[in-house]
Amino acid sequence: MSAKDLYFVLVIFNIVAGIGVLVFRLCIANFELAKIIAGLRNSPGVEVYKFYLNRSLLSRSFAVVNVAAMVFFYKKSIRDGRLDEGDYDNFPSSLKFRLKAMYSITLLLGLMMLVLFALGKYCGWLK
Tens digits of per-residue pLDDT, 39-49? Predict the structure, then answer.
């Protein structure tokens, strides 16, 4: 397998994994956003997203990404007053894990995309 073939495989993997994370996020937005907001009911930063409960799937997905960022960077969110420490401690661990996993995989895929783009430009495989 040549380097160009490996590059192509990694690009396809990145695209497929990105679509998988998007589907996972849409499932959370469709089925579990109400649980997330109920679990973080004392957090001022999450109160804003109650508005999105009865909106479109895209709006709910936006709310999930923002809440996942607060859960992922929980120390900063607690320090900034957007996330209540008691809410975070009592938040269901399985849901917390899924939000953190979704957000970290999204960050890793974004970083991988940037590295692959730079590598493709450097090697001349992208025009």
Answer: 998 999 888 88
